[in-house]
């Protein structure tokens, strides 16, 4: 008989989020460097470093974060930070989250990050996003979990 997965606490989730933020920043850095290279190749004599506006940088950060989380949660239930911390995002019925649910959860986590702090006071260690979207963040050190999609 399979054991009930143990819900992840706020400290592990926080460390996971820090790792994932670093991954998103690395993606954004790679995009910026790519744009600089294209600009240099297009006009080598008039090259100068691009200085994106704050709203553009913030918007790109939000979009890349949501895309990263959505793809990771819908495909494996794990981000790079989750792999490092031994976590997985699943539904309350212990399945992988579907694409729409993963996208909604990603948007909620990025745009309303303070809701994640609810996991510190909830007896079942659920964030507000987990409660509303019926998901759970659990400890899962297995490389290839036997989860079924949605």
UniProtKB/TrEMBL annotation:
Its main location: membrane. It is a multi-pass membrane protein. Keywords: Cell membrane, Membrane, Transmembrane, Transmembrane helix. It comes from Speluncibacter jeojiensis. GO terms for cellular component: plasma membrane. It comes from the Bacteria. InterPro entries: Pra-immunoreactive, RDD. It holds the Pfam family RDD. This is RDD family protein. The chain crosses the membrane at residues 21-42, 54-81, 102-121. It is found in: Cell membrane. Residues 8-132 form the RDD domain.
